[in-house]
Amino acid sequence: MVVGAFPMAKLFYLGIRQVSKPLANRIKEAARRSEFFKTYICLPPAQLYHWVEMRTKMRIMGFRGTVIKPLNEEAAAELGAELLGEATIFVVGGGCLVLEYWRHQAQQRRKEEEQRAAWDAMRDEVGHLALALEALQAQVQAAPQQGALEELRAQVQEVRAQLCALDRQLPSQVTSASQAMSASFKK
Question: FRET label pair with 91: which of 23, 75, 137, 172, CA 20 to 30 Å apart?
Answer without folding.
Answer: 75
